[in-house]
Amino acid sequence: MPVRPARCYRRIKGPPYTRLKYIHGAPYVQIPKFDMGNTSQAGRQAFTMTARLIVEARGQIRAQALEAARQMAYKYLSTTITDANYYFRLEVYPHHVIRENKMLAMAGADRLQEGMRLNFGSPAGRAARVEAGQTLMYLEFKPEHLPHIKEALRRAASKLPLPTRIIVRPKDGDKTPSS
């Protein structure tokens, strides 16, 4: 069954559904890496600038969209400025389990299913719930790579269902991301 479009899940409805102890069949998070590029503390000392991709509206972002955005940014950065020249971190984690009431869509399906009766749904995916102003992606880099960093974040933002903006600052006035 194909994945439903992002518009079906981008609004936050109800409390978060995150207790995996009680959710049987919850899908695994398929984001392999959250820290990329030059991850050593000694290597990160040379970076003097930071960039953040910040979400402008409250909502949910599916794990598939986060992974697509991560891959776009990482592939562009690793081919243009190489991994030694930046530190890249995905700041959000998809904790929320998305439920889907699967319906048959063929002739005679009305006799085979109950429709909206007891429609709690079965686990179908994961999503990260984000608030307006929350950081999605964090980068540290040298000032000469600024155009490539902006382009990578622009490409990543094109894969997300919510509006975003890019903020670039010197590293001195910025606190490091919490681990």
TrEMBL record:
Domain of life: Archaea
Pfam families: Ribosomal_L16 (PF00252)
Family, as annotated: Belongs to the universal ribosomal protein uL16 family.
CDD domains reported for this sequence: Ribosomal_L16_L10e
The keyword Hydrolase appears for this protein: no
Record protein name field: Large ribosomal subunit protein uL16
GO biological process, one term: translation
Molecular function GO terms recorded: structural constituent of ribosome
Keywords: Ribonucleoprotein, Ribosomal protein
Organism for this UniProt entry: Thermoproteus tenax (strain ATCC 35583 / DSM 2078 / JCM 9277 / NBRC 100435 / Kra 1)
InterPro entries: Ribosomal_uL16, Ribosomal_uL16_arc, Ribosomal_uL16_dom, Ribosomal_uL16_euk_arch, Ribosomal_uL16_sf
